Amino acid sequence: MDYLIIVVALLLIIALLALIFALVFLKRNKPFAATQMPAEAFTETSSDSQALVSENPIAPQIDIGLEINRDVLTDQVIEEITSLPEPEIKIRRSVVDAGGRPRGTRKPQELKQEPSKNKTRTLKPEFICWKQSRAWIIGLDIPEEYLERNELEIKQNGSSVQIDDEGRARLLEISGAVNIDWIADGDAAEITLRNDNPYLLFRLIGKNLNRGRQVHYATAGSFLAIVPEEWKRDEEISGASTTAPDNLIIQGYKAHYFIDRTKDSGISFRVADGTSRNIPTRASRFELIGNQIKDSSDDFGPLFGQRPPQIRVTDENLWKNINCIVLGEEGTGRKRWRVQFTPEPDGAVQDMPSELSGRESGWYFLRFYDLKENLIESMDFRFANALRDVRISSHPPFPGLTGHVPVTVEFLHDSDSSIELSQKSSGDLSLDIEDTRTVVTIPAEMKWGDTTWKISVDKGAPVETRILMERIWWVIGERDSARELGDWVDTPIKLSRDDFVAASNRVILFRLPAKRWTREIFFGFEPRRARAYSVDVGKTQVSIPLSHFGGAKEIEDSTQDHFLKAWLAKDAFQTSATVGVILADIPITIETKSDVRTQPSARRIRKYLRRLMRRTEDTALHEIIDRTRSKYLSPVSETDFHSYVLETGCSIVLTFEILKESGMKLPRRRKRWLKRLLSLARADKDMMERFREEYRNLKHRTTQPQESKR
User: Fold this and answer.
1) How many CB atoms lie within 10 A of CB 395?
2) Are 252 and 414 in contact (CB under 8 A)?
3) Residue 147 and residue 153: Cα distance in Å, rounded?
4) Residue 129: beta bridge partners?
5) Contact indicator for 623, 658 with CB cutoff of 8 Å
6) Which of 305, 294, 293 lies closest to 385 in space, CA to CA?
7) Consecutive sets of 10 residues in the chain, 710 residues long: mean pLDDT of each?
8) What pTM was estimated for this model as a whole?
């Protein structure tokens, strides 16, 4: 009896499985005619071709019989079409194997993989560019899947094109058809790429922006336009060029740069007949969101910490027009990691594939392809799961009276990661390394103004971040030769009145922290009489001829010292720097009497400052007083001494102000030389304000690390 029950149960299970299999089979083989579609939904393209409806990226390049006109199809009909079984693709018979193989259809190898959200499709080759030996080269980026095909051959307008070791096919012309043929199991297949425009537009990436990938319109970022050499940049629309056009290996064309393009600027050229030719531009429709860490690595895309970023679109309906997104490891060479995924049609924000988080860190690209497999937009980014934040202590671009101050950079990271300087240098930096925190002190030296740091983890690729010190430096030089007459400094330069005559060849060379840092800078003896000097967008240096100030009243007045200053336009003259000083021909005396009690000596002043330092524990105030004391430890000239007297007076006045605010008892001021010193300091309001501003900056810098620890 038990055996009979078991047999009956098995028969029932087999019958149930057969029924399920039959239902699945009938559903998957639903007749195509069951889907109601209007007749105008198809357009005849070739009488000799076979019908093809597929999501295979190479399908649009293969001759097919019918094309779907999506404009007249409803969303329901399109959904039913795409849910049909994967169609077979007709491959042309090879002449060599004709007759030896039964006719029929087969599926390409790329279509045999299991469908999934992140399956890898075979993308078609794309136009790229790269710079080599001071000239640009145009080529095709050949996917690795193509390189593995038998008898791969590439021709452009009938001429053969060679492939280099990095999988790049160097093109011979800008426009025309590029045919890619190969043999697969005796069958011949091909795709055709065309550029019917007289130009090519590339989005630049990489260090020094020395390579790019074709896009159909420009968004935000840096771009390279390859145009006929007779086309001239329309600066009214495109703005002034940061770099002169470069040469192209292909004769008759020039490469024009559009660096850090914004949404407000266009890309336009004047052609030979005087008309304008505009290259399409638009605002980017994609953006990356997440824990973005601010740094100065403009050539490598934004940096994100703790986790990979998300993708957000300006219009949720845009995802319906995106066929796939390619995410891959950025860089040159072959065999780099890559994955593709299809975005979810609903929602403005998309998550990155889970495979990316497992890589922990690196530099990656994102490429967005439309329904026709055309690249519509691309971007790159960096991320490091182990990095939480990078904090830089505030520091004004203009130095104080005693120069720039050191800056503290604090890296907050996981315990299994490390931070190190990735560039070669002639000196050492002070690093305070803890388990989850690395603190670097950047000296007040010009050579440390731009540093690159490497963030390393156990599994992921190292990530670099660039730290820029926004400091301004200057030096005296010659106008004709642009030769520097000394070292770059951050303290006032002594100038003579002969430097300001009309025939003078002397200039002050002014160095900014980075390109495009400011549009103009102002120089003069007073803000209301300052002259504006434009800064070329592609340069970090401004030349200020001193002869431009030869008619100023300060040049004629030789009875007192005068200070040549600089102001930034972007802070509305709130801060300034004393760049040069013209000393009085007749030294200033503290008193007209020759009584030694009214004449302060360097020794007497240093002794008094030392007594002041004992009255307070304010580290910022100590630093200002100590710099003033140590500035003139060695014997100085009489003119230098009078500048020292004025700075000392400002230090003492500032100390009295801080002590008074703290409610502390002020020291006695009975000595006549001290009273005269304080009177002179209070009379120079500009210098006093600079001392107060420097104290506030130092106070903020010394308290910031304590707040971060809390």
Assistant:
1) 21
2) no
3) 10
4) 138, 212
5) no
6) 305
7) 73 80 60 38 37 37 37 38 35 34 36 41 80 88 79 83 84 85 73 83 83 86 89 83 84 87 77 85 88 84 92 88 90 81 86 88 90 86 92 86 85 90 74 89 89 86 90 88 81 87 88 84 88 82 89 83 81 72 63 43 70 75 74 51 72 80 67 72 76 77 50
8) 0.64
